[in-house]
């Protein structure tokens, strides 16, 4: 398999492309290289007149487990966290505002920043046994864009943000976090079917429908919500408790870190 961070596969029949995040050994955790490649691929797709829809998926066992926690020192002050979060917000905004439909095909784990990435897509098909959630809240972290209350009813957003629990694709469909959950072997056929339908629609119809729907969310306060979340997340990460967890991440292996994080919940997670 190619070592490119994003695999580009143009459909032979219809005007859509499949973008595959390609760090399976890291469960498609987003580092700088993957983020840059995804951004470039979205820009390329938008610029290509023969691409009228995009499927975004992940290689291996995950869609994306979020931002890569290995190899960096995350014990930062609030201002540096603001810069870091702002860069991630910019990428998510690019995906959300692309004037063509982007369909997430969630093949496995979609966690933390990976879940935010999914929610910035227009529609989502998930495998029934996929796992979705915001587990980063358990180590005093928070998502960069706070898309949950713009995607699901508030009680479900609160549940996921207060507990860090993971839910499967079936439950995600029930709470409207995803459009549809299907058996894993039907995931890509179903995502391709949806992409074909979008690609055969009049392009202007979707472009301006998306613009209108995005504007609805913007006038309802989405940009303000994202900006406020940036400030609270920067403060959270720079707090003493936040710094303690980031220090622990620096001192321990990722496996040890996650074992410590999950230990208080082992008798409660079903």
Task: Characterise this structure.
- There is one protein chain.
- By secondary structure, the protein is of the alpha/beta class.
- It has a single domain (6-265), classed as 2-enoyl-CoA Hydratase, Chain A, domain 1 (Alpha-Beta Complex), CATH 3.90.226.10.
- The protein contains 10 helices and 10 strands.
- The chain has helices spanning 32-47, 78-97, 113-119, 154-163, 169-174, 187-200, 203-219, 222-238, 240-251, 254-262, and strands spanning 6-10, 16-21, 53-58, 62-64, 102-106, 109-111, 123-127, 131-133, 166-168, 180-182.
- The strands form 2 sheets. The protein has a 6-stranded mixed beta sheet, with helices on both faces.
- Strand 1 (6-10) and strand 2 form a beta hairpin.
- Helix 2 (78-97) packs antiparallel against helix 8 (222-238).
- The chain is globular and about 55 Å long.
